[in-house]
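Input chain follows. Return C-alpha cells only.
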Amino acid sequence: MKQVAVLVEGQTEEVVVNNVLCDAASSRGICLTPVVVTTSSTPTGAHRGGGHWKHYDARIRALLKASHWYRVGLLLDYYQYPRGAPGRNTDPASHTGDSSSGRQPALIDALRGEYPDPRFRPLVVLHEIEALVLAAIDAGQGDGLLPRQGLTDLRQAIVSAGGPEQVNSGPGTAPSKRLEAADPRYMKTVTGPLLIAEAGLGAILARCPTFSAWWEDLLA
C-alpha cells in the first residue's frame, strides 16, 4: 500500500483521520498516518497543536525528507492560522469576496511555494476542522445528542452562510465556538468525530467542496 502522512494541528484532527479517513483511504490502497505536531514539551509530556510555525516547519521538512511517503498532507485551520506561517501577513482586504475565493487559496499557494516538493498537499481548512461537524449536522446528525435549540441554531447558521465551509472565522462565530454555544457539554475530540463518522465521509465531502478537492488530490 502507498504510505501517506497527514500533519495535523491537534487531537481533534487526529481522531478524525483515524476514525473516518483511514478506512476510506485503505479501501483505495492508501495507508494513512496522522502526525500531530508537537509545539512544546514539559516534564509531564508534550503539548500539541497551535503555537509558532517553526514547530510545523520542522515536521514538514522531516516528513518530506523521508522518501517512503507517497504524499505528505497538511491540515491547518484558516481560523487562527499559525504565527509565522507562510502567507500569514497576507492582507484579507487585498482579496475580493470571502476567504474561500481570496485569502485562503493565497495561503495554500504560499505553503506550496515554501515547500515545493511535488508530494506536498496542504489544506487550509475553511474555517476550522469543525466545519466537517457542521456538515454532519447539515446531513441530519445530532438529534438526541445535541440540544434541539442548539441544532436549530447551527442549521440556520449553515444555511445563512451558504454551506458548512462558509460558516465564518471569529472568536465567537467560528465553527468550534458555535458548537460550544449550541451545547456547553460539546467535546471536540469525542462528539465531533462521532457525528462525522455517523454521517459518513460521502455526506461530508458532498457538503465541503474545498475539503473534498484536497482529499481527492491527496489520494490521487
